[in-house]
Amino acid sequence: MSNVVLRTRQECEDFVRGLCFMGAGGGGRPEGGLKLLLDQLDAGREIAWVDVESLPDEAWTATVAGMGGRGGEVTEEELAKLGCVEEKYDPLGLMVAAVQALEDFAGIEVEAIVPGEIGGSNVPAPIAAALELGVPVVDGDYAGGRAIPEVPQTIPEICGVPVCPLSFVTRWGDVMILKDTISSAMADRIGRMINVASYGPIGFSWYLMQIKDVKKVLAAGTLTKALHVGRVIREARERGADPVAEAVKAIDGWLLFEGEITATEIADEESYAFGLGSHTLKGVRGHEGHTFKIWYKNEYHVSWMDGKPFVTSPDSLIMVDLKTGEPATSYEFSIGDRVAVIGRRAHEVHRTKEGIEVLGPRHFGFDLDYVPIEERVKEFGL
């Protein structure tokens, strides 16, 4: 792999499209991610990432992200009683401050940022933070080239890498360091409770690792892959080809279903920004006469064909517009949309016993065993 630089709006649009596609329904709103990148271009900066092999083994890295969520309703008067009169950080500033808090605590200097997961805003955000910090971004992520709803589902976690120390920063300026934790699941919960307590988004930074250790747990090349997929979809549209079919080929995936959404359900849980939901589809084109249901917790995780269990996490389920191939997050599709559902094989670590335990259907409360996508599609004659 080589280092990549984006210099134009079209390149940024292709990149964010590919990130949203690979995010498997999660990873944040692509329009927000695109704005972050274009703001950096307008400031005269180049959007770039580097091959992990190009960095010194002893260089320190960190992961950084924003944690969203509604946080509950609150009045200005109630905020004032808590001393929350003026916001100290905007969403980008939150992430920069979180990295700096981690540096201060550990007494080191972060020399590169590693994205925690793939997604339309969940990669542009750390890229923008890295540009503000003046450090490069590594071409790869810790979630296996997809988005995930919980910190314990990362590759480092599955491989036994501790999540702590971990920093949290609220928009009001509260700074917290989690020195140790009984589990990364608890660390994740603590962060979401801070999100609720502070009535809004927070920045957090974690996985303080040197490059020599990053290489052991990194899904390498996923940013470059996202750029390729986003470009393939656009170019297919421009030359009149089928963008869905081209996207399937670009990821060596499977076309699982083509249909029209006939019902949707969205249910918020705790402080997840959009929580749980599902879409029900009736088949069109070659899938007429069939039904399909897909369930998500931010990302798509479980599906059924004609009422029978079909493809599930840890393999990726991706939904795109049937005509344009344009992806969107799980909660942005609605009744009447005609869509295609695409399947993609999971990262090898997520297919281990430990990976299936944290990202398989039973983890999400379904009485189903994980069956690899390549076996499921044969079972259903696809």
Instruction: Estimate the helix proportion, in percent.
Output: 25-40%
Silhouette? globular
Mean pLDDT: 93
Q: N- to C-terminal separation? A: 33 Å
Structural class: alpha+beta
What kind of sheet is the major sheet?
Answer: 7 strands, antiparallel
Q: What is the helix/strand order?
A: EHHEEHHEHEHEEHEHEHHEEEEEEEHH
Tell me the number of strands.
16
Quote the beta fraction: 15-25%
Annotation field: number of helices:
12
CA gyration radius, whole angstroms: 20 Å
Strand order of the largest sheet: 14-13-12-11-10-16-15
Uncertain runs are: 269-274
Please describe what this structure looks like.
The structure is a single chain. With 382 residues, the chain is an alpha+beta fold. Helices cover 32% and strands 24% of the residues. It has twelve helices and 16 strands. The protein has helices spanning 9-22, 30-42, 76-81, 91-106, 124-133, 155-158, 184-197, 211-217, 222-238, 243-250, 353-359, 373-379; strands at 4-6, 47-49, 60-67, 112-113, 140-141, 166-170, 175-178, 202-210, 219-220, 254-267, 276-283, 291-297, 299-305, 308-312, 316-321, 338-344. The strands form four sheets. It has a seven-stranded antiparallel beta sheet with strand order 14-13-12-11-10-16-15. A five-stranded mixed beta sheet has the order 4-3-8-6-7, sandwiched between helices. Strand 13 and strand 14 (308-312) form a beta hairpin. Helix 9 runs antiparallel to helix 10. It is globular, with a radius of gyration of 20 Å. The model is unreliable at 269-274 (pLDDT under 50).
